[in-house]
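Raw record, unedited: Response regulator transcription factor
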Amino acid sequence: MKILVIEDDTTVRHLIVTTLDTHDYEYLSAKNAEEGLDLASQEEPDVILLDLGLPDLDGIEVIKKIRSWSNMPIIVISARSEDADKIEALDAGADDYLTKPFSVDELLARLRVIQRRLIYLNEHSPQEEISFTNGDLHIDYGAACVTMKGQELHLTPIEYKILCLLAKNVGRVLTHKYLTQAIWGTCWESDMASLRVFMATLRRKIEPKGTDVHYIQTHIGVGYRMMKL
């Protein structure tokens, strides 16, 4: 993968690019939003690692600008650790969120998740296409497309993976550990917090306000279950 790092903190940027270089990833780096947006449009990286606190433009606006012309995966790396900040970034179009300070192993795990998804999308055979329908919710696994009452929903790759895991195990409670292992390949404490945030954003998309339909049931302290409607 070719990875674009947009980070104004020299120390953090050096840590990230050194890690990428050590693990044989091709990378580009930018120290501000303007430079990062130029590289994103010209070089078309496979993944963007984005800091939110950039000197010339807030990272949320950078996400929105990129989403206006590309669906390339964006992993936010930020010191903003509140759930509200994570939800704002995910709603803007980020695919994942890593809170500073972070471990190198955790960063690499998140990149492997993106890499596996890109490989899957490139190699997925049309013969394997199947679908899932539950009430007004429909998933076309072959096209990686989710619709609600015929209207396509924009889900991040992580939200889509969570939904598919639940859909393929209708009626079964999937534990927090099972979900985090399946999504990120790890079970860090930060993964548990991220899972909660992703579940909240996913629910807002498939269970909009004003509806009595609830597809996902929470089992407090245990996990989540997809209900059959």
